[in-house]
Design brief:
This protein has about 180 residues and is of the alpha+beta class. It contains two helices and eleven strands; from the N terminus they run αβββββαββββββ. The longest helix is centred in the first third of the chain and has 21 residues. The protein is elongated.
């Protein structure tokens, strides 16, 4: 009877090791984005590099970066992001078209797009005072990418914006902060 349990334990351990080996999702430290007031300096971002987790991505790999949004201000806040590419050559632009970015809040998928499509505003979450939300960004580089893009880097500026509304209704101001 003992040998059966040992055998089952070894199989479970082996399966677990295989799952870890074949799971190619990795992630870095969370980035915290907090709205403290409605002034230009009221949007606090803990790290300016939203894509630090994606450095060194290789074909067939998916990497993850979590953004934690928190509203400590007295009005409802709707957070969004957008980007602008910086001085891209044709090869870098083609690479951006091949990289997939997926934005999720828990199990709910918000967006899936290639990096050239993130130029437009992407609404992420709306939070009341003292609420938080985690938005996970997943970047995937397809396996079929060859060495044509080896050593390429892409520079982009990322921005976080917020629209404020009263809890009742109506439009609002807003501000933005940037992360590189």
């Amino acid at each position: 009877m003992k040998n059966i349990f040992k055998h089952k334990y070894r199989i479970i351990a082996l399966l677990f090791a295989c799952i870890l080996m074949f799971t190619s999702v990795s992630y870095a430290a969370d980035i915290n984005i907090t709205l403290t007031d409605a002034s230009k300096n009221g949007l606090k971002i803990s790290d300016n590099n939203f894509f630090a987790a994606f450095n060194g991505i290789v074909p067939g790999e998916t990497k993850r970066q979590d953004l934690i949004f928190t509203n400590t201000y007295g009005q409802k806040a709707s957070f969004y992001i957008w980007s602008e590419a910086v001085n891209l050559n044709d090869q870098q632009r083609k690479l951006m078209e091949k990289l997939t970015l997926k934005l999720k809040q828990g199990d709910k998928e918000l967006y899936t797009c290639n990096l050239t499509e993130v130029i437009q505003r992407k609404d992420l979450c709306t939070l009341k005072k003292n609420e938080s939300a985690v938005i996970s960004m997943y970047m995937t580089m397809p396996e079929e990418i060859d060495n044509t893009y080896a050593g390429q880097s892409i520079e982009a500026r990322w921005f976080v914006g917020v629209d404020l509304t009263d809890d009742g209704s109506g439009g609002g101001g807003g501000g933005s902060g940037s992360g590189g």
